[in-house]
Design a protein that fits this description.
alpha+beta; 26% helix; Jelly Rolls; 2 domains; three-stranded antiparallel β-sheet; single chain
Protein backbone atom coordinates (compact mmCIF):
# COMPACT_ATOMS: atom_id res chain seq x y z
CA UNK A 1 0.00 0.00 0.00
CA UNK A 2 1.26 3.47 -0.91
CA UNK A 3 1.18 6.20 1.71
CA UNK A 4 -1.44 8.81 0.91
CA UNK A 5 0.14 11.97 -0.42
CA UNK A 6 -3.10 13.97 -0.30
CA UNK A 7 -5.29 14.00 2.81
CA UNK A 8 -8.83 15.35 2.90
CA UNK A 9 -11.03 16.20 5.87
CA UNK A 10 -14.67 16.04 4.72
CA UNK A 11 -15.95 17.50 7.99
CA UNK A 12 -14.23 20.87 7.56
CA UNK A 13 -13.17 20.76 3.89
CA UNK A 14 -9.39 21.02 4.41
CA UNK A 15 -6.81 19.34 2.18
CA UNK A 16 -3.15 18.57 2.98
CA UNK A 17 -0.69 17.60 0.27
CA UNK A 18 2.78 16.27 1.18
CA UNK A 19 5.47 18.00 -0.89
CA UNK A 20 8.52 16.80 1.04
CA UNK A 21 8.85 14.35 3.91
CA UNK A 22 11.54 13.53 6.46
CA UNK A 23 12.43 10.44 4.46
CA UNK A 24 12.62 12.18 1.08
CA UNK A 25 14.52 15.24 2.38
CA UNK A 26 17.10 13.32 4.39
CA UNK A 27 15.64 14.79 7.57
CA UNK A 28 16.04 18.43 6.59
CA UNK A 29 12.40 19.42 6.18
CA UNK A 30 8.79 18.37 6.04
CA UNK A 31 6.81 20.48 3.61
CA UNK A 32 3.07 20.38 3.06
CA UNK A 33 0.57 22.44 1.12
CA UNK A 34 -2.70 23.14 2.89
CA UNK A 35 -5.96 24.34 1.47
CA UNK A 36 -7.79 25.74 4.49
CA UNK A 37 -11.52 26.17 4.02
CA UNK A 38 -13.32 29.39 4.92
CA UNK A 39 -13.76 29.52 8.70
CA UNK A 40 -11.08 26.87 9.27
CA UNK A 41 -8.11 26.90 11.58
CA UNK A 42 -6.38 25.21 14.47
CA UNK A 43 -6.14 26.15 18.16
CA UNK A 44 -3.22 27.86 19.86
CA UNK A 45 -0.23 25.52 20.28
CA UNK A 46 3.56 25.40 20.06
CA UNK A 47 6.28 22.94 19.07
CA UNK A 48 9.51 22.23 20.94
CA UNK A 49 11.37 20.37 18.20
CA UNK A 50 10.91 22.39 15.03
CA UNK A 51 10.14 25.80 13.56
CA UNK A 52 7.39 26.39 11.00
CA UNK A 53 7.53 28.63 7.97
CA UNK A 54 4.23 29.59 6.38
CA UNK A 55 4.24 30.82 2.76
CA UNK A 56 0.94 32.01 1.34
CA UNK A 57 0.08 30.79 -2.17
CA UNK A 58 -3.44 32.15 -2.58
CA UNK A 59 -5.82 34.06 -0.32
CA UNK A 60 -5.22 35.51 3.14
CA UNK A 61 -4.04 33.48 6.13
CA UNK A 62 -4.57 34.74 9.65
CA UNK A 63 -1.98 33.98 12.32
CA UNK A 64 -2.33 34.70 16.00
CA UNK A 65 0.75 34.78 18.20
CA UNK A 66 0.96 34.77 21.97
CA UNK A 67 -0.41 37.91 23.54
CA UNK A 68 -3.26 38.05 21.03
CA UNK A 69 -1.20 39.67 18.26
CA UNK A 70 -2.85 38.89 14.89
CA UNK A 71 -1.23 39.02 11.48
CA UNK A 72 -2.81 38.61 8.06
CA UNK A 73 -0.54 37.29 5.32
CA UNK A 74 -1.39 37.53 1.63
CA UNK A 75 -0.17 35.66 -1.43
CA UNK A 76 3.64 35.67 -1.64
CA UNK A 77 4.19 36.63 2.00
CA UNK A 78 5.84 34.36 4.53
CA UNK A 79 6.61 34.11 8.21
CA UNK A 80 8.69 31.74 10.32
CA UNK A 81 7.39 30.75 13.74
CA UNK A 82 10.35 29.75 15.95
CA UNK A 83 10.28 26.73 18.26
CA UNK A 84 8.37 27.16 21.52
CA UNK A 85 6.37 30.14 20.15
CA UNK A 86 2.61 29.82 20.78
CA UNK A 87 0.62 30.36 17.61
CA UNK A 88 -2.44 29.35 15.66
CA UNK A 89 -3.54 29.82 12.09
CA UNK A 90 -7.02 30.53 10.80
CA UNK A 91 -9.05 31.60 7.80
CA UNK A 92 -11.72 34.12 8.72
CA UNK A 93 -12.45 35.00 5.10
CA UNK A 94 -15.27 33.61 2.95
CA UNK A 95 -12.85 31.90 0.52
CA UNK A 96 -10.30 29.10 0.96
CA UNK A 97 -6.65 29.98 1.52
CA UNK A 98 -3.78 27.89 0.16
CA UNK A 99 -0.41 27.98 1.87
CA UNK A 100 2.75 25.97 2.29
CA UNK A 101 4.07 24.97 5.69
CA UNK A 102 7.72 23.97 6.04
CA UNK A 103 8.82 22.18 9.22
CA UNK A 104 12.56 22.49 9.98
CA UNK A 105 14.11 20.13 10.79
CA UNK A 106 11.84 17.47 9.30
CA UNK A 107 9.62 15.64 11.75
CA UNK A 108 8.23 12.22 10.84
CA UNK A 109 6.11 12.27 14.01
CA UNK A 110 4.37 15.40 12.74
CA UNK A 111 3.81 13.68 9.39
CA UNK A 112 2.39 10.60 11.11
CA UNK A 113 0.11 12.71 13.30
CA UNK A 114 -1.41 14.35 10.21
CA UNK A 115 -1.99 11.01 8.48
CA UNK A 116 -3.56 9.56 11.63
CA UNK A 117 -5.72 12.63 12.34
CA UNK A 118 -7.13 12.69 8.81
CA UNK A 119 -7.57 8.91 8.88
CA UNK A 120 -9.56 9.10 12.11
CA UNK A 121 -11.83 11.75 10.61
CA UNK A 122 -12.45 9.68 7.49
CA UNK A 123 -13.18 6.59 9.61
CA UNK A 124 -15.76 8.50 11.69
CA UNK A 125 -13.71 8.35 14.89
CA UNK A 126 -13.86 12.08 15.69
CA UNK A 127 -16.50 14.59 16.65
CA UNK A 128 -17.81 17.12 14.11
CA UNK A 129 -14.89 19.44 14.96
CA UNK A 130 -12.40 16.68 13.97
CA UNK A 131 -11.29 16.05 17.58
CA UNK A 132 -10.75 12.34 18.27
CA UNK A 133 -13.44 10.75 20.42
CA UNK A 134 -10.79 8.59 22.10
CA UNK A 135 -8.63 10.44 24.64
CA UNK A 136 -5.88 7.92 23.85
CA UNK A 137 -5.98 8.97 20.20
CA UNK A 138 -5.90 12.65 21.19
CA UNK A 139 -2.91 12.11 23.48
CA UNK A 140 -1.06 10.20 20.76
CA UNK A 141 -1.70 12.95 18.20
CA UNK A 142 -0.50 15.70 20.55
CA UNK A 143 2.66 13.85 21.61
CA UNK A 144 3.50 12.43 18.18
CA UNK A 145 3.03 15.79 16.46
CA UNK A 146 4.96 17.71 19.14
CA UNK A 147 1.87 19.87 19.65
CA UNK A 148 1.85 21.49 23.06
CA UNK A 149 -0.94 23.54 24.57
CA UNK A 150 -0.01 26.93 26.09
CA UNK A 151 -1.55 28.98 28.87
CA UNK A 152 -4.25 27.52 31.08
CA UNK A 153 -4.49 24.45 28.83
CA UNK A 154 -0.92 23.55 29.78
CA UNK A 155 -2.40 22.33 33.07
CA UNK A 156 -3.66 19.19 31.29
CA UNK A 157 -0.16 18.24 30.11
CA UNK A 158 0.30 15.69 32.95
CA UNK A 159 -3.01 14.04 32.00
CA UNK A 160 -1.99 13.93 28.32
CA UNK A 161 1.32 12.33 29.33
CA UNK A 162 -0.44 9.67 31.42
CA UNK A 163 -2.91 8.90 28.62
CA UNK A 164 -0.07 8.72 26.11
CA UNK A 165 1.89 6.24 28.26
CA UNK A 166 -1.23 4.09 28.74
CA UNK A 167 -1.89 4.17 24.99
CA UNK A 168 1.67 3.06 24.29
CA UNK A 169 1.37 0.21 26.82
CA UNK A 170 -1.81 -0.87 25.05
CA UNK A 171 0.04 -0.48 21.72
CA UNK A 172 -2.66 1.85 20.40
CA UNK A 173 0.03 4.02 18.82
CA UNK A 174 1.39 1.03 16.89
CA UNK A 175 -2.10 0.11 15.67
CA UNK A 176 -2.68 3.67 14.43
CA UNK A 177 0.72 3.78 12.72
CA UNK A 178 0.07 0.43 11.07
CA UNK A 179 -3.38 1.45 9.85
CA UNK A 180 -2.63 4.97 8.63
CA UNK A 181 1.13 5.30 8.13
CA UNK A 182 2.54 2.03 6.82
CA UNK A 183 3.14 1.43 3.15
Amino acid sequence: MMLKEILYNPLVGNTVKFLSTAERSGGTRTEIEIELAAGGGIPMHYHNNFSETFTICEGTLGLELSGGRKLYLKSGELITIPRRTPHRFFNDSSSPVTFRERISPADSGFEHSLRIAYGLVNDGLTNKSSIPRSLYHLAILLKMGDSNLPGILSLIKPLITILYRQAKRKQIDKKLLLKYCER
